[in-house]
Amino acid sequence: MDSSELYHVGMKALVLGGTSLTGPFVARRLHALGHRVTVFHRGVHEVELPAGVEHIHGDLGDPPRELGALSPDVAIHMWAMTEAGAARFLELFAGVAGRAVVVSSGDVYRAYGRLQRLESGAAEAGPLTEDAPLRESRYPYRGKPVPADVGEWYDKVLVEGVLRGQTELPVTIVRFPAVYGPGDYHRFRPWVRKFTAAAGECQVQEDFAAWRWTHGFAEDVAEAVVLAATREAAAGRTYNVGEAVTPAWAERLEEWARVAGWKGRMVAVPAAELPENERLPLDFTHHLDMDTGRIRRELGYAEIVPREEAIRRTIAWERTE
Question: How far apart are CA 170 and CA 281, in angstroms?
Answer without folding.
Answer: 40
